[in-house]
Amino acid sequence: MIAPVLNQTDERQLKRLLWLVAVGFFMQTLDATIVNTALPAMAEGLNESPLRMQSVLVAYSLTMALLIPLSGWLADRFGTRRMFLGAILVFVAGSLACGLAVTLNQLVAARVLQGAGGALLMPVGRLTVLRAYPRERFLGAMSFVAIPGLVGPLLGPTLGGWLVEIASWHWVFLVNVPVGALGWIAARRYLPDFRGVERNRLDVPGYGLLALGMALVLLSVDGLSALGLHGATSLVVLVTGLACLAAYWLRAGRQAHPLFPPSLFRVPALSIGLTGNLISRLGSSAVPFLIPLMLQLSLGYSPAQAGMMMLPMALAGMLIKRFATWSITRYGYRRVLVINTACVGGMIASFALISGTEPVWLLVLQFYLFGSCNSLQFTAMNTLTLRDLDTAQASSGNSLLSMVQMLAMSLGVALAAAVLGGFAETLQAEADPARMQQAFRYTFICMGGMTLASAWVFWQLSPHSVWVRRLEQDPGFD
């Protein structure tokens, strides 16, 4: 049951609400991509190796993965307005701290703070829209909110490279401060406040086990590169993390209100969708991290040029949406996902062929094709995961999927950095662009092969798996 603070919301207030949530979504998605092209400049400014900068990305996405499961409970307990205002303040404070950081450790800590704000912006905003709009108008409302989420990744890499060249890498973060300040003022004035009447008690120990398990698993991978952990130490950290996740699973089965009920995993589509999301995203999440690095470190591109080269990927992702719906409707989930996962893996591996001598149009085409396959993959995986959940399971399933997506992004970047760092060290490549390009080639082959192998997961789907209209229920879900 929901207790609205406002008795009646007029049309003007509803439009203002949509703009507020859309701006929050734009800030979150923009910041997830704007940093990628600025990493080499950050490394130079902080006197670090560009191959050790992945923690800047990992800290942000991991923090989001850890806090997304709490978003619904926090909003029900403290109100959507208070949580949205708090999320903006934390996000802006984190952005300011990032811009003022003078060491890598300070920057990573600030990214954690920024990720804490970003983790609540979209879930709480979407929840507010859900509660303010009648069901028959929710589709159009979320379609409007989803547009900035597509524009953010489109502008992020280019804007990041441009800011680095005309100013400094600090402005990649400082640009959020005035936008966030205006958003906070507007939200304080116009955002409605909703709370849950029935408040389930938060399973704090269970959440602690889940969060610690995810953090340790990621730390074991990231530690191979960024923290310089030895293999034995990383193995101990990994086993400890897996033990925490197993303990959470055992505990959840005995709780009345766990974060994620074990009954969710009795739904075959959700189990396969989550597993496929986690494994296949390892390779695709590494691409936005690896491509700008390769273009700048090996091929001599400027930050702005590297950012511009990422545009075809994002543009293709926007244009392929209609085809994604048609293809799943016609051919079913199993066939589309098995074939398209193989295509995504093949496209990632094909980046190993880049030498710097090919014409620009060929690179643009290559990036566009990857963006198309990757967007189709996300749409198919995400709709598959939630398609068979009933109303009571939808909220937990959606939060679980969002958490797995962010965790996969973190793991993908950390794993790619570890593989790249290993090849670079073996080839002694950091001072030699030609050897560095060879290290990138091997890394793309490894990440592509991993994605290709994940097609086996989707092979477990029923051959008769067909399209269910999940997109019509949640068009912003991608």
TrEMBL record:
Transmembrane segments annotated in the record for this chain: 17-39, 51-71, 83-102, 108-129, 138-156, 168-187, 207-229, 235-252, 264-284, 304-324, 336-354, 400-420, 440-459
Membrane topology field: Multi-pass membrane protein
Protein name in UniProt: Drug resistance transporter, EmrB/QacA subfamily
Keyword terms of this UniProt record: Cell membrane, Membrane, Transmembrane, Transmembrane helix, Transport
Annotated Pfam families: MFS_1 (PF07690)
Keyword Metal-binding: no
PROSITE patterns found in the cross-reference section: MFS (PS50850)
GO cellular component: plasma membrane
Gene3D superfamilies in the cross-refs: MFS general substrate transporter like domains
Molecular function as annotated in GO: transmembrane transporter activity
Compartments where found: Cell membrane
Main location: membrane
Keyword presence, Cytoplasm: no
The Major facilitator superfamily (MFS) profile domain, residue ranges: 17-466
InterPro entries given in the database record: EmrB-like, MFS, MFS_dom, MFS_trans_sf
Top-rank taxon: Bacteria
